[in-house]
Write a structure and sequence with these properties.
With 334 residues, the protein is of the alpha/beta class. The chain has helices at 11-22, 54-63, 79-84, 86-107, 140-158, 190-198, 226-238, 240-247, 264-275, 299-305, 313-331, and strands at 2-6, 26-31, 45-48, 67-72, 111-117, 128-129, 162-168, 170-172, 205-208, 220-221, 223-225, 251-256, 262-263, 281-284, 295-296. Helix content is 41%, strand content 19%.
């Protein structure tokens, strides 16, 4: 199957393209390269441009009338940046996605997979969250994801569009063949910051928030290997119609996570075990927009996709470290 992947030059997008190829599918990449590097596109079919460019979308569908599905991953994703620059997030994540979905519907491309986020969830007493649990997005970034979930649900109810919405928990690690991984020179996410501290690129790793209502006062997350997330997209593409039929609704939401919560302190401990040495750690206040955290109940993905995570936290850490040593060969910088 040919699959249009918006944001296919990004971290998760490029890894998903690799997973699609290994399963016998053909990814067609649409990316503005605002953040994702051209090196991650490789020799794939590639269109450089904006997801809201209707003329470009018409050209892509004309060039590839056999497109079977669209995976919409293109988005701005940095929580603190969204607090500081909300307009850019609502413009790129909401307004342009509206144009994308409307044009796809007009062009008769009706299968859409949407990258959403676990940052939508309200904190629950147990920290485990199911898809129907209360939502309380705490940042402009998270609110853009909730808005687009609602848009897709409404559009699917009113048209032939069908949507599988995947709420990612916390991706980490790299593509197993080290073709792609985290590309930011100074990544904002926790594992990237740990790798930098371990490699001496930072004086220390900063734990942001130590008085939260978790078992050790630090934020709690469900850290899931990016390759497991990529595998879930392949399953969702291949089983799209049966998922919609079994769900009995024109759109369906699924959590993608391990089903296990890990605090930041626990992550630091696991990281130090993998690297075999201490990493310098400092403590500071929570950042604007940060959530206390949650972990996934992933039973729906198991039932509808036949998917569970297969890779461990330690394997994700190890692959992130391997990528940090290898990425200069791919990207030209450490």
């Amino acid at each position: 199957m040919k699959v249009l992947v918006t944001g296919g030059a990004g971290y998760i997008g490029s890894t998903t393209c690799t997973a699609l190829e290994r399963a016998g599918h053909v990814p067609v990449v649409l990316d503005s390269l605002l953040t994702g590097p051209l090196a991650f596109v490789g020799d794939r079919i590639f269109y450089r441009g904006d997801v809201g460019d209707r003329a470009l979308l018409r050209r892509i569908v004309s060039d590839h009338p056999d497109l079977g599905a669209v995976i919409h991953m293109a988005a701005r994703i940095v929580v603190p940046e969204s607090v500081a620059q909300p307009y850019a997030y609502y413009r790129d994540n909401v307004a342009k996605s509206l144009e994308l979905f409307d044009e796809l519907t007009a062009l008769g491309v009706h299968r859409v997979l949407f990258s959403s986020s676990a940052s939508l969830y309200a904190t629950t007493p147990s920290f485990e969250v199911r898809e129907e649990d209360p939502l309380a997005p705490a940042s402009p970034y998270a609110r853009t994801k909730l808005m687009m979930e609602q848009v897709l649900a409404d559009c699917a109810s009113a048209s032939d569009l069908r949507a599988v919405i995947l709420r990612y928990f916390n991706p980490m690690g790299s593509d197993p063949w080290l073709r792609s991984g985290v590309y930011a020179k100074e990544p904002s996410h926790v594992l990237g910051q740990l790798v930098m501290a371990a490699n001496g690129q930072r004086d220390s790793f900063m734990i942001t928030g130590t008085d939260l209502p978790t078992r050790d006062g630090t934020g709690l997350r469900d850290y899931v290997h990016v390759w497991d997330i990529a595998r879930a997209h392949v399953r969702a593409v291949e089983r799209f119609d049966s998922v919609i039929t079994e769900a009995g609704t024109p759109s369906v939401v699924m959590n993608l996570g391990t089903g296990r919560g890990v605090t930041v302190r626990e992550l630091v401990d696991a990281f130090q075990r993998v690297v075999g040495r201490p990493v310098p750690v400092a403590e500071g206040p929570s950042r604007p927009g940060d959530a206390v955290g949650a972990y996934a109940n992933a039973d729906r993905a198991a039932a509808l996709l036949g998917w569970r995570t297969e890779l461990s936290l330690e394997e994700a850490i190890d692959s992130a470290l391997a990528w940090s040593r290898h990425r200069v060969r791919v990207l030209g910088y450490e």
